[in-house]
Amino acid sequence: MEKIQHLYWRAGFGLSPREWKAKQNLNLQQAVDELFREAGADWPVEAPPPPSERPARGMSEEQKKQLQEQERESLSQVRKDWLKRMASPRHSALMERMSLFWHGHFACQTFSGTLAFQQLRTIRKYAFGKFGDLVLAIARDPAMIRFLNNQQNHKDKPNENFARELMELFTIGRGHYTEQDIKEAARAFTGWSSNLQGIYTFRPQVHDYGSKTFFGQSGAFDGTDIIAMILEKRETAQFITRKVYRYFVNEKVDEALVEDLSRRFYDSDYDIGQLMRTIFESDWFYAPHNIGVKIKSPVELVAGIMRTLDVRFIDDKALVFLQRALGQVLYHPPNVAGWAGGKTWIDNATLMMRLNLVGYLFQLSEFNFRVKDEPEAAMGGKALRRIDATVDLEPLMQLLEGVPPEHYSERFASYLLQARPQLSTSLLNGYTSHNSNWDYARTLAMRLMSLPEYQMC
User: Fold this and answer.
1) pLDDT tens, 230-260?
2) Which has fewest Cβ within 10 Å: 212, 229, 330, 402?
């Protein structure tokens, strides 16, 4: 079961207690097949209602402010809805996990809920398809166009932002292109824009139809040609495969494995689904040195806690506040490179919050916290927020049916932790309640989920 648990933490956000019981008898191949079957059936989602108005010339300042507030509320709703989907066993864990990976890869800030959801829908559509189709769709995505200023990319004054990030961060990586390649690629993407309604549009009057020289080849290339030429380079497959490996397998890269995976990825015409199946079906993915060594991102941590304890927030604004407090706000990466991950998730501002979060939910179901990097003055003097929540422990307690109390710790640890705890059972028991078996189990689960090992997957 340890391998199944490992699979579902890396390909999802852990297993709910009910899922854990239901999948006890699955072998790895059955589990992988089920994950991909659910992902293939689950990506369509209804879009949130767009703002009632659209930007228009002649709008008053008050109308503009109202529209901005509508967009902020819409974006907040997208952030909340997506995190709830990650935490819900009713939705495909693998689709949500893969979408989160691509969201971090194609890092994009937006202040529009409509554009944020539109981009997420695009990512879902191509998440397991051909990487080239995904890149092309992102290049035409209005949120990305606006974030990297491609609407300002005109033949008379090319803007290089998108062309630079396309190569440096999205496809081939540094060292495999020149500054001149960036300039020529920028010319190829001139005219790729979006209108006021947030719909991709090509503006032929500002496109540069002249000859460009890119990667040593010359022609009247447009953006589609540039992407195709980047994909012809094996270095692109290597760059993407290495990033996938670091995210899903281990930050310490096995270069021989990455080389083999990237060769297969390239030969498959960049088939993302095939790459992911190869990883999840490989024996080395389940090797001990790959289990319990990855620090959960804030979103992974919160989604996993919600899934384990069936957490329901009385006011779901808490889902956005938690993202801010822990340092990972969806659709607000720190920069164009996205979240660095790994040890950067842990700092003085977040460590105690991460370790104490489950305790707050268990003991009080409400707590106060300070939003990370948000000055108190900027919040009108209210830097502390209170969150009310409920948890359902019954499914978790059902895992102990037929288990003697002296073995509760072993059963819970096998379910809750990927990394083995450093604390002895006797020491752990010193911090648990012994008023009844229920209290003992309840406080034991709380203590285990408050250990540093629970931060790992």
Assistant:
1) 999 999 999 999 999 999 999 999 999 999 9
2) 402
In sequence order, what DSSP letters do the residues of 199-227 get, joined into one string? -EEE-GGG---S-EEETTEEE---HHHHH
Looking at the chain, the whole-number percentage of residues with pLDDT higher than 70 is: 91
DSSP string for residues in 380-419:
TT--EEEEEEE---HHHHGGGTT--GGGHHHHHHHHH-SS
In sequence order, what are the beta bridge partners of 312?
Answer: 390
**Mean pLDDT, rounded, for 322-332:** 95
Q: 220-227, long-range: CB within 8 Å, 24+ apart, which pairs?
A: 221/184, 221/188, 222/188, 222/189, 223/139, 223/185, 223/188, 223/189, 223/192, 224/136, 225/188, 226/163, 226/166, 226/185, 226/188, 226/189, 227/132, 227/135, 227/136, 227/139, 227/166, 227/171
Sequence-distant (≥ 6) Cβ neighbours of residue 122 within 8 angstroms: 137, 138, 141
**Stretch 129-149: mean pLDDT, rounded?**
98
For the chain, domain boundaries: 396-455
